[in-house]
Amino acid sequence: MEIDLTKLELKLMNILWDKEKAFVNDIIEILPEPKPAYTTISTMMRILVKKGYVAYNAFGKSHQYYPLIHKEDYTHTLLQNTKDNLFGGSLKSMISFFAESEKLSSAEIEELIEILNSTK
């Protein structure tokens, strides 16, 4: 399974993760203006099926799509790949990068320390 999703693919996956099942028209209804064409979303859903992220139940000519991967599993794999590929496998380097680039407050840093200490 490819882990890299395009922005649109990820947007569609987020809709499916939230709704659990959806027809193309349900997805289009949720998307912001300007609404994409039905055929565009239908094509993107077929791509997600081909990539192994989504399956569907057929109802005549309509398809009700549902995710095959949990959001947490996707997020874990994506972040693991990011850690390995951009930070040499170092969680410390990854956390340091985000702590510095996000300009965390002292309270946020303390909260993170508490979270880290509770996972021991």
Please outline the helices and strands.
Elements: H1 7-19, E1 22-23, H2 24-30, H3 38-51, E2 54-59, E3 62-67, H4 71-86, H5 91-101, H6 106-118
Antiparallel strand pairs: 1-3, 2-3
Helix pairs in contact: 2-3
Average pLDDT number: 92
Give the helix tally: 6
Arrangement of strands in the largest sheet? 1-3-2
Report the portion of residues in β strands: 5-15%
CATH class of the largest domain: Mainly Alpha
- What is the straight-line distance between the termini? 32 Å
Largest sheet: 3 strands, antiparallel
Give unreliable regions as ranges. Answer: none
Q: What is the number of E strands?
A: 3
CATH architecture label name of the largest domain: Orthogonal Bundle
Number of domains: 2
Radius of gyration, rounded? Answer: 18 Å
Which percent bin holds the helix content? 55-70%
Under CATH, the homologous superfamily of the largest domain reads Winged helix-like DNA-binding domain superfamily/Winged helix DNA-binding domain
